[in-house]
Specification:
The protein has 85 residues and is mainly alpha-helical. Helices cover 89% and strands 0% of the residues. It has a domain at 30-77.
Length: 85
């Protein structure tokens, strides 16, 4: 593997890791939003549909995190394969 190819692989892995951190922050925010939505639903402030939307946003956050982690592992595996490590 050339130094340039190695640097490109490393950069892709770094971007995936940073995206993973962003996804993690999104999950935390969605969890907080769901908690607030549950409290508001219990208090009669929002509808069941709005509560479901908050649950859906949390699920989407989890899905994106899993997708990002999978891509990161695939990029690491590709780097190891190409670099012979």
């Amino acid at each position: 593997m050339t130094i340039t190819a190695n640097a490109k692989c490393t950069k892709r892995i770094e971007r995936s890791i940073l995206l993973g951190f962003t996804c993690n922050k999104t999950i935390i925010s969605a969890e907080q939003n769901l908690k607030i939505s549950q409290d508001n639903y219990n208090a009669g402030v929002i509808t069941l549909s709005e509560l479901f939307e908050a649950q859906n946003l949390l699920q989407q956050s989890y899905d994106q995190y899993i997708e990002t982690a999978t891509q990161c592992f695939q990029k690491q595996a590709k780097w190891k394969q190409v670099s012979g490590k």
